[in-house]
Amino acid sequence: MADVAEAGGQSALMAPTEILARQHFETLAAPLEAQGLAAVLLTGRDKGGARAEKLRALASGAVQVAVGTHALFQNDVVFHDLRLTVIDEQHRFGVAERQRLQAKGQATHLLAMSATPIPRTLELTVFGDLDVSRIDEKPPGRTPVATRAIPMGRMAEVEARLKAVVAAGAQAFWICPLVSESEKTDLAAAERRAGELRQRIGPSVGLVHGKMAGPEKDAVMARFAQGELSVLVATTVVEVGVNVPNATIMVIEQAERFGLAQLHQLRGRVGRGKAESACVLLYDPPLSEAGQKRLDILRRTDDGFLIAERDLELRGGGDPLGLRQSGFPAYVFADPIAHRDLIAAAGDDARLILARDPGLTSDRGKALQTLQALFDWQAQSTLQDAG
Questions:
Q1: Who has the most CB within 10 Å: 52, 309, 359, 379?
Q2: Starting from the edge strand earliest in sequence, which strands make up the sheet with 39-42, in order?
């Protein structure tokens, strides 16, 4: 971002939640300011004159870096010269949402980050449309998280164990799913679970969910981070951007209803300190075949990229040329999972041909032009434009 600013451009970093966006802003603002660069935080909470002032600064180029949430790609947000977009937790954004932010600049570079890339993103890496940088080491001091799958019928045992470790000074998350047709029913279930845990454990049980007002949600999260609350009952609002090193237990209720990416992200909220941590996956038996596979994968590995590959196999890669982020299209020539090595070799060969014969004037180049005319879904496009 500093290099982009030095070249006269602007950068934008987008995160899926206000909590995470604020953490990124607090991390970046001081180092950027030390280099004479200005950063601004833009979220849905910004209103009126304060928001208008931030928009003017972005449009004029007075601010070199914008950090924010979905507020960054709204129609009234205009950049002076956006050249780099960084999207954190990219699996939490739709294809069109990511494109709307990138479209606010000319030939804007894109850096997408995620511990668990969505199936469509992973498929694009197979086809060569995206380059991959993989970090396969944990930060210093992190400990592995022991993962166990337990049927819901043993809920009382889990609650009793949770009470014991909380009494010893530990902190825990308890995640309730939002999956039913009635959101009111879902929130009532989360409130009921919080009430039951208060009766069993004591008053140090908090509740946070997406329907709470921003300041109210921030207050509960602050109390948990400061150790005033021992257990935080939450929906998936805590999936990203929550860093409480003292939290060592993650209980996920009805875990079979969550996707692999969500389960891995939620598990990542614990094990952030030096103490041993555990993740308990509570499930309703009998499990479907897909549900059984998801929980087995989580128990066997904590490698986010490997989990994403298994997610691709289970859910399909969606539509690389469209907006679907998962699913199984009717592949005709090659399946990106079964023929992954062959596709990679074909990609290397295509890059070699374009490097040696960019105009496609050789015999082989002319043959490729004929092949493209026969099979390309857009006759107007060129081979150089293909992902």
A1: 309
A2: 39-42, 65-68, 10-14, 82-88, 109-113
**Which of these CATH numbers, 2.20.70.10, 3.40.50.300, 3.90.1150.10, 3.90.226.10, describes 2-113?**
3.40.50.300
| CB atoms near residue 311 (< 10 Å) | 24
**Closest to 233 measured CA to CA, from 261, 198, 262, 200:** 198
One-letter identity of residue 203:
P
Task: Dump pLDDT digits (tens) for 336-383.
Answer: 667 777 877 887 888 888 889 989 999 988 888 887 777 654 444 444
- Whether the CB-CB separation of 88 and 116 falls below 8 Å is answered with no
d(CA 271, CA 147): 11
Domain ranges of the chain: 2-113, 145-302, 340-377
The pTM (predicted TM-score) of the whole model is: 0.68
Count of residues in the chain: 387
